[in-house]
């Protein structure tokens, strides 16, 4: 005879080395005294807990620089997935991390972390009697059966719930669906924990072929005159290579803001994305850019410099991943990068500008079903002006690429973007500005590519330094 146990619920409890815990404890204590904590750690409106959970843009792991905790949690999660659940290996990342402070008397009602893969609590401060984390038996039918048949008992098979006592340096990890609650803190000191949700990191596929965007696939000619260097203070001369993901490292847990323009254009903005905006500006600003759209009879290198820097990207690429997640979250569409590279548009005026904006255009191509344009502003705060404008094509009264516009461009090439001139002609006849998104350092702007954007310059800013925008496209 044999009796097997089925439907087990895994729960990981691990006590980290005291030296690591001490380092984490010191960083959290310093963080809690900081300006950021004063802003982000607030009483929860629903619980008696003080938490940074209500500030989605705050991430305790980043704000308190808890790299060791992040590595420790990812390592434990990998073991949980592969060794305990016997699932194939996968890349994991922190989806969200926040701090919870349970003052004496505080407790937390039962909840789940649905939507994530794994969740955990790490205990920074856990005085005696500060309240256990309690997991009720998640099989509802069994719970009521135990009550009805009075067969609840102390054995693992008959218990109504499992309580895990917190301890300083203890990590408790579980699948995110598992309901849990926190008992009342009956000590006279605060109980401080860090909650972390984990998810599978997306691995975007590399596009097979380069995208044949209008004016985007022309061979680069050698520059006929040197491109002016940027302002002296940004010059960086070490000339060392860099890994794209290192220089363009991004903040985790970025708030995704749907900021539709006049309720008509569903633009999405992710602010403060870059961890090292100054370093990015230094490198981009001190790297010579070659010409782009340098055509016979064109105005490039006559009254402006319209140049490009192209960076090959290898996956996983965090910038692509964050765009992919934002598009999936806002538009409900799974995309892949159109190209295995990203471009920096390096634009500088030689003469005063001839319009408030560049030629409105649409980035759609026939090769893809859907496309999203992603633009990351790279200028420093003191250099930012204007941004990106969006337009209505007046003859067809359309905000998006349509037949009428396509026909008109065929008939009169000056309406479309030919690459011969940066500034448009006869704008009033064709274009009405609908709204603008401001250029903000480290801001990622995303919008469906069928709309009509253009670089927006309301002042002559870019005579002394270049306008720097990184662009890539996500498609299906
Ligand atoms: Fe929780």
Q: In terms of topology, how is this protein built?
A:
Blueprint: E1 11-15, H1 18-32, H2 35-40, E2 42-43, E3 50-51, H3 60-63, H4 67-84, E4 92-102, E5 108-111, E6 118-125, E7 133-136, H5 140-149, E8 161-164, E9 170-175, E10 180-182, E11 191-200, H6 244-247, E12 257-258, E13 268-270, H7 277-286, E14 290-291, E15 304-312, H8 318-331, E16 336-337, E17 341-349, E18 371-377, E19 387-393, H9 403-411, H10 427-430, E20 431-438, E21 444-448, E22 452-456, E23 467-475
Antiparallel strand pairs: 1-9, 2-3, 3-4, 4-11, 5-10, 6-9, 6-11, 7-8, 7-10, 12-13, 13-21, 14-15, 15-17, 16-23, 17-23, 18-21, 18-23, 19-20, 19-22
The site of fe (ii) ion has 4 residues, from loops.
Brief write-up:
The chain is built from ten helices and 23 strands. The protein is α+β, with helices and mostly antiparallel strands and 476 residues long.
Head-to-tail CA distance between termini:
56 Å
- The amount of helix comes to 10-25%
Low-confidence stretches: 204-237
Which CATH C-level class of the largest domain is it? Mainly Beta
Q: What small-molecule ligands were found?
A: fe (ii) ion
How many separate helices? 10
CATH fold group of the largest domain: Jelly Rolls
Please indicate the percent range of residues in DSSP E strands (runs of 2 or more): 25-35%
Class by alpha and beta content: alpha+beta
CATH architecture designation of the largest domain:
Sandwich
Average pLDDT: 87
Task: Determine Rg (CA atoms, Å).
Answer: 27 Å
Q: Indicate the overall shape.
A: elongated
Main sheet characteristics: 9 strands, antiparallel
Whole-number tally of structural domains: 2
What does the oligomeric state look like here? single chain
């Amino acid at each position: 005879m044999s009796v097997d146990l089925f439907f087990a619920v895994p729960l990981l409890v691990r006590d980290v080395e005291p030296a690591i815990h001490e380092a984490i404890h010191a960083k959290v204590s310093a963080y809690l005294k900081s300006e950021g904590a004063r802003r982000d750690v607030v009483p929860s409106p629903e619980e008696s807990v003080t938490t940074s959970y209500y500030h989605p843009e705050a991430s305790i792991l980043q704000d308190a620089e808890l790299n060791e905790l992040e590595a420790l949690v990812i390592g434990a999660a990998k073991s949980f997935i592969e060794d305990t659940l016997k699932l194939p290996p996968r890349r994991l990342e922190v989806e969200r991390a926040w701090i919870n402070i349970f003052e004496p008397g505080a407790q937390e009602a039962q909840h789940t972390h649905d939507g994530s893969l794994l969740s955990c609590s790490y205990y920074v401060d856990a005085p005696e009697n500060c309240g256990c984390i309690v997991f009720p038996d998640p099989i509802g039918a069994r719970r009521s059966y135990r009550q009805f048949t009075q067969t609840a008992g102390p054995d693992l098979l008959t218990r109504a719930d499992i309580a895990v006592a917190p301890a300083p340096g203890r990590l408790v990890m579980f699948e995110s669906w598992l309901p849990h609650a926190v008992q009342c803190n009956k000590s006279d000191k605060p109980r401080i924990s860090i909650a972390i949700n984990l998810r599978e990191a997306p691995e975007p596929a590399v596009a097979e072929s380069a995208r044949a965007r209008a004016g985007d696939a022309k061979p680069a000619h050698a520059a006929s005159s040197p491109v002016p260097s940027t302002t002296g203070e940004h010059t960086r001369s070490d000339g060392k290579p860099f890994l794209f993901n290192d220089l363009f490292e991004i903040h985790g847990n970025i708030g995704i803001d749907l900021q539709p323009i006049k309720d008509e254009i569903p633009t999405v903005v992710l602010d403060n994305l870059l961890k090292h905006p100054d370093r990015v500006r230094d490198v981009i600003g001190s790297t010579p850019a070659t010409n782009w759209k340098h055509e016979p009879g064109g105005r490039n290198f006559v009254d402006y410099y319209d140049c490009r820097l192209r960076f090959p990207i290898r996956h996983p690429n965090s910038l692509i991943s964050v765009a992919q997640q934002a598009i999936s979250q806002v538009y409900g569409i799974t995309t892949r990068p159109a190209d295995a590279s990203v471009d920096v548009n390096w634009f500088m005026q030689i003469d005063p500008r001839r319009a408030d904006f560049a030629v409105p255009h649409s980035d759609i191509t026939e090769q893809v079903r859907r496309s999203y344009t992603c633009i990351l502003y790279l200028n420093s705060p003191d250099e930012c002006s204007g941004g990106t404008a969006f337009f209505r094509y007046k003859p067809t009264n359309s905000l998006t690429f349509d037949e009428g516009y396509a026909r008109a461009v065929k008939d009169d090439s000056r309406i479309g973007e030919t690459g011969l001139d940066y500034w448009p002609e006869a704008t009033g006849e064709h274009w009405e500005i609908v709204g603008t998104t401001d250029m903000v350092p480290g801001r990622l702007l995303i919008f469906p590519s069928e709309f009509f954007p253009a670089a927006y310059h309301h002042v002559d800013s870019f005579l002394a330094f270049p306008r720097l925008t990184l662009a890539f496209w996500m498609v299906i």
